[in-house]
Amino acid sequence: MPRPSRTHDAVDQLLDAIIAGTLTAGEQLPPEGQLATEFGVSRLTLREAVRLLQAQGVIVQVPGSRHRIAPVAEWTGMDAVVRHARSAGQRQRSSLELLEVRVMIETGAAQLAAERRSPEQLEALDAALRSMAVHHDAGDVEAFVAADLEFHDTILRAADNRILIAAMLPLTSMLEETRGETSAVPEIRAHAIDEHAKLLDAIRARDAIAARDAMAHHMAQTRDDLVALVLD
């Protein structure tokens, strides 16, 4: 069995080549030996990488012929889809799509968090919000983003649903990237602090509906800021 790191490197190289258009969707995958040589890996490693991408719907096995590269619309693996979404030329669309997904997931998470949060989690939310305010005043974007992500991560953990947390994990890298872009704008940071404060108030009051609505409002404000101040 090839070492996982070599296999994952081969997966990344294959996926990057497909996303870049070097390997074209709808066409056959080049011969195994050719790809192994190009990527500097063994045929066994290349074969395992292809198998992993088959599991994500990126590569389709064709009986009696070489594998076919599937169109992006047919991909089923979250990791592959997120990697494509982060690629050049896709950032604006993916940023808006990510917000749509966050609305669907995080509003429900906020509702559950208001009902299930512990005193310790409430303290963690308050600490994250205070940290956001301190780093906003200092103009420390990286630390502000870290506190922002901690606030939302605490809400997910407070919702106490393992499947919910697992569903959000593949989106973490995109969240860090988009938060960095938006949080570089002082006006957006100020809006975020205000929205998070309202959300915290609802969770503190154990008002599930108000928490859901506060998160929905926060997502709407984020989208408006993204469109007006970042993507424009």
Describe this structure in words.
It is a single chain. By secondary structure, the chain is mainly α. It folds into two domains: 4-80, Winged helix-like DNA-binding domain superfamily/Winged helix DNA-binding domain (Arc Repressor Mutant, subunit A, Orthogonal Bundle), CATH 1.10.10.10; 90-230, GntR ligand-binding domain-like (Four Helix Bundle (Hemerythrin (Met), subunit A), Up-down Bundle). The protein has helices spanning 4-20, 32-39, 43-55, 78-85, 91-116, 119-138, 141-159, 162-168, 172-183, 186-204, 208-230, and strands spanning 59-60, 68-69. Strands 1-2 form a two-stranded antiparallel sheet. Strand 1 (59-60) and strand 2 form a beta hairpin.
What kind of sheet is the major sheet?
A: 2 strands, antiparallel
Number of strands: 2
How large, in whole angstroms, is the Cα Rg?
21 Å
- The CA-CA distance between the termini, in Å, is 49 Å
What is the share of helical residues?
Answer: over 70%
CATH class division of the largest domain = Mainly Alpha
CATH fold name of the largest domain, please?
Four Helix Bundle (Hemerythrin (Met), subunit A)
Q: Can you tell me the CATH superfamily of the largest domain?
A: GntR ligand-binding domain-like
Percent of sequence in beta strands:
under 5%
* Second CATH tier, the architecture of the largest domain: Up-down Bundle
Shape annotation? elongated
Count of the domains: 2
Q: Give the uncertain stretches in residue-range form.
A: none
The largest sheet has its strands arranged as 1-2
* Category by helix and strand content: mainly alpha
Protein name: FadR/GntR family transcriptional regulator
Domain HTH gntR-type: 4-72
Organism: Agrococcus citreus
Keywords: DNA-binding, Transcription, Transcription regulation
